[in-house]
Amino acid sequence: MKEELIISGRMNPMVDPVLNIWHWQIPLYLFLGGVAAGILFFASLYFIMGREKKYPAAIKWAPLLTPFLLVLGLAALFLDLNHKTFFWQLYLTIRLESPMSWGAWTLMVITPLSIIWSATWLKELIPGWHWKYPFLDQWEAWFIRHRLILAWIMLISAVILGVYTGILLSAFNARPLWNTSILGPLFFASSLSTGAAVIMLMAKSHLERNIFSRIDLMMIGIELFLIVHMFMGFQASTQVQIDAANMFLGGPYTEVFWIFVVFIGLLVPAILEALELLGYKIPIIITSTLVLTGGLFLRFIIVYAGQASRYLY
Amino acid sequence: MRFAMAIDTKKCVGCSDCVVACQTENNVPIGYCRDWVVEVNDGTYPQLVMEIRSERCNHCSNSPCVRCCPTGASHYDYGGIVLVTPHKCIGCGACIASCPYDARYPHPKGYVDKCTFCVHRVKEGLPPACVAVCPTKCLYFGDTDDPRSEISLVLKKRKYKRLIPEAGTNPNLYFLI
Amino acid sequence: MNRRNFIRISTLSAGGAMLGSFGFGGGKEPSLLDRLTGKSHPDESGYMRTPTYCEICFWKCAGWVYKNDQGDIWKIIGNENDPHCNGRLCPRGTGGVGMYYDQDRLKTPMIRTGPKGKQSFRRASWDEALDYTAKKLDYIGKKYGPETVALITHGSGGKLLTTLMKAYGSDSIAGPSYAQCKGPREVAFGLTFGTGLESPEPTDIRDTRCLVLIGSHLGENMHNTQVQEMADAIDRGATIITVDPRFSTVASKSKFWLPIKPSTDIALLLAWTNVIINNGWYDKEYVEKYTTGFDKLKDYVQPFSPEWAYGITTLDPNLIRQTAKEMANASPAVIIHPGRHVTWYGDDTQRSRAIAILNALLGSWGRRGGFYLPELKEIPEYPHPPFPPVKKTWRDILGDQYPFAELPLANAIVDGSIPGNLKDFQYRGWIVNGSNLNMTMPDMHKTLEAIQQLELLVVIDTMPMEITGWADVILPECTYLERYDVIRNDHNREPVIALRMPAAEPKYDTKPDWWITRELANKMGLGKYFEWKTFEEFLDYKLKRMGSSLDEMKKIGVKKYPRESGDLYFSNDNPPTFDTPSGKIELYSAQLEQAGFDPMPKYTPHEEPPEGFYRLIYGRTQTHTFSRTSNNPNLASVMPDNKVWVNPKVAANWQLKEGQEVWLKNQDGSTTNFPAKVRITERIRWDSVYIVHGFGHTSRLLTRAYGKGVSDSVLITKVLTDPVMGGTGMRGNFVTFLTENPDKEAKV
């Protein structure tokens, strides 16, 4: 029998017996950031493609939510800090090798962008809206003139944000479960899928709902493909990564992952969307909620299970 | 200059004096520790082998914790010793998650804390507290860039291993086997 | 120092100062008070420190107490000049600061208000508590005689209390360190070589080529010098042979591990003797010149072949031969280690004799790499009137029991306190200092029975140990970091003394032992035995007569003296003498024979565990001393409880899981108060379980230690008493597992 144990009583809070440094705040932040990134991606993409009229929910309505999502995400991130009064240190430096630094700065860029983007559509969306101060009207006019540039910056930062939510984790090779380059695309696909789900919810036209339903179906397909490949990759890798994969293949995370993420969060909505495309009437609220739930569970499970996966002891 | 530590697993009896000496030297709060002792047993009675390792931060030459720190609080210091500057640390926990050795922990005051190789002693020419106290003298500390240092000599003479070098960290703890 | 270095160091110190503001860094600047009073002295780097010697265990390593910037006790570092530690304290000594900071400490004197065993006390002033004690002692002395009061002590405070007891008229002064620990080997080596081993044992591990450990888990017991020298021996490539049913830490570092069946050690020792004699591997010249009884021994061991021993010990006969050869090859630089806690099976003096005989055959006594000849510095007495005669000495009280006991037996005092055990004698009062008898003595039930019969139980301690709950009066002493004590004076390679002085004022309303003892003496009208003005004067008086002074000792902490008794080993200039009746090493003991015991060690089979039961083996751990450190915050953080070690085969039989909680029940139905977590490990034999001694505290006042782990003293109800000297063998107990709580209310 092999026995490996710490005999000096190490019991560092939040590290032992299993790493527990990140709680609900980080997965929630990753989820909210992901949804916002998804929405803003579609908004800027379709704006650039000139589908302003065709997809008003994607370009105009859904982005209204993103400032709130992002601020909530930032608040969660702040709550997670253990040395909160020093948070401003984040913005005194740019550390190119630190995903956390990338994230902090990306949010610094995309949050104001999302506010500006939303603000430029307010007059159009809410009849009778007017700005209290005249200089805001001037600004608005200026931003509307440069909407295309705005859209391009937003598109790039949305991709960075979407991918970043995965890279934040995959950069940690200390946690074998996270240490896979599939996590970036997977989380980005999930953020597009959840973003699409929100747009579907807000879409009024059948056309718009239909196109985002198709997009979502495609994203779910990509996610399933990535998940399968992630586990294949783990199984073909080192022992610690095989052990990490086994947490989901018979281990403690098996049921919760396959039922809540894969079945309820991916397969069921995919079937519903397919049925809808075939012409069946499916309440969109059900599909969207399932997708969003699946996305949230994915973040939670990956963050928690990742902390339980380790090299030593 | 490249500070490193060698731990003679053949001599270590696992007494944990290193842990207690670190506690008192560095005022590590009770319930936390910067170093720890691992015992590994293998075999079937009575064919058994045991390995005892006094472990701590590996002060890696390629430290994931320094890389992932968003503020530069984690940094390379004197002789490659990896340190955390408490007033730069925001306590995000990224470095804690990034350490394959789980050598870091959040200090109750909020910042992240870890072994410093007793840099305050090393700068005065003293060995780290754990090395100075070890009753079996199984810990060697010194500059591996200096071929005549005690640690360089012992590493030349003895077989050693490092912990999970495959994590790419280039650790600076050497376990003599 | 060249310029570059100088610059490097000075710039770096600035960095150090910056780091210092984040929590560490020592007190380089003495406080004004310290400077004015000259209380601490700077070390080479300028840190302020005061000398002490450790009180966490009996090894008493000398060290320095350092203070931080705030003037609080910061850390304790070993004294480089002390041969007990060579500048390196063990974890317990390093964690000694925790004893000082423990917020659970006894804080004020207390006097009992309710029945014994209940925590019903009232706070008292020192005056009141000492008055109470003095009056009670006076009453007992008048009614029953002072010899009915016993002192049970472990630690430095015992020295002055001993003076008080002798002045009072009793010599029943016992330490569990004798009959519950090293007594049998002291008697056995005394019978064989004419002198015991004392502490620290004069084992010359530093220079040995072969170290044989019989059930001694050096490295798990932190007998500091020995562990240090053993590590050096490993470095040098010396052979270590370990005989232990458990894969002890040192077993893993040994060239040979003999996983012996428990309780059969004498059979192995006899087989080794047989092999060494029959192959002529013994030191012929040494044996011829210095020993007596060799022929009788040779004849006697003939039947005890390795094959014979195989049937008993389960050890491969070839392994027995091979290890005997290994010892012979190293001879005389070989140590068959006498061990320290050797009260196992009731024939412990005989087993220790077998060890002594093997050492004699291999010529290791008085030889380099075997046993050196230690030397002790005489400490002059502070003048006091002669002690009154003792009406009934401990020996008189014991009668013809245990004829070879050299010191009073703590267990005999317990027995003698229970009415009817002794003819016309009963102990009526105990003074207990630094010894938690509830957990120290085997058979806790008997100890409690005895305590309930006492008219007075005075407990002097630093912590609210179980024994304090039974006291009539509790006198809280301050810790060793807050007091002066008698000069440490143990034998060693060179005579060496050490000073302990206070590093801080006593916390709470606690007092040093010397103060307690003298005040009590004054109240008892025995002040003339303690006529020094201050304790400093008492120490200075002695030190001045030893070529030193208190002032000097405050600066150096440890002083070594040159040897006066000649060489460290036997030589032509230093011919051996043996203080035995024959003047030689007695392989055959006529003394034992005359007293009706076996003159040569005999193997007797011991009881074996019944079906479903496992032999209880207990031992030490590096981070704790007995039960006295379990509540120390630093040490408890390293080891908060003890686990019960179970072989995987046994665990499979009982379907036990790693970390599962079980209660242990022994052959007499005595059950642990608390559950222990199971550790499934190959390190223990399938016929035994192992726990570390000292856990399972039932005193709720020990907030960290209460209910953590289990106590072996609850499970040791069967005591195998050594008829030779009265040692209490404790390894004849067997336990089984209970997976359900046998008693919803924890018993106390």
Tags for this entry?
heterotrimer; A: 313 residues; mainly alpha; Formate dehydrogenase/DMSO reductase fold; 69% helix; globular; C: 748 residues; alpha/beta; N-terminal domain of TfIIb; Rossmann fold; Dimethylsulfoxide Reductase, domain 2; 4 domains; 7-stranded mixed beta sheet; 6-stranded mixed beta sheet; 26 helices; 32% helix; disordered N terminus
What would you note in describing this structure?
- By secondary structure, chain A is an all-alpha fold.
- Chain A is built from eleven helices and one strand.
- Chain A has a single domain (25-79, 98-308), classed as Formate dehydrogenase/DMSO reductase fold.
- By secondary structure, chain B is α+β, with helices and mostly antiparallel strands.
- Chain B has a single domain, classed as Alpha-Beta Plaits.
- Chain B has helices at 17-25, 64-68, 94-98, 119-122, 129-133, 150-157; strands at residues 3-8, 36-44, 47-55, 74-76, 82-84, 105-106, 112-113, 139-143, 160-161, 173-176.
- Chain B has a four-stranded mixed sheet with strand order 8-1-10-9, with helices on one face. A two-stranded antiparallel sheet of chain B has the order 2-3. In chain B, strands 4-5 form a two-stranded antiparallel sheet.
- In chain B, β2 and β3 (47-55) form a beta hairpin.
- The model of chain B has no long low-confidence stretch (mean pLDDT 96).
- Chain C has 748 residues and is an alpha/beta fold.
- Chain C folds into four domains: 3-25 and 45-100, ADC-like domains (N-terminal domain of TfIIb); 110-178 and 379-560, Rossmann fold, CATH 3.40.50; 199-373, Dimethylsulfoxide Reductase, domain 2, CATH 3.40.228; 614-738, Barwin-like endoglucanases (Beta Barrel), CATH 2.40.40.20.
- In chain C, the strands form seven sheets. Chain C has a seven-stranded mixed sheet with strand order 6-5-16-15-14-7-8. Chain C has a six-stranded mixed sheet with strand order 22-24-23-28-21-25.
- In chain C, α5 crosses α20.
- Chain C is globular, with a radius of gyration of 26 Å.
- At the A-B interface, β1 and α4 of A face β2, α2, α3 and β6 of B.
- β1 of chain A pairs antiparallel with β2 (36-44) of chain B.
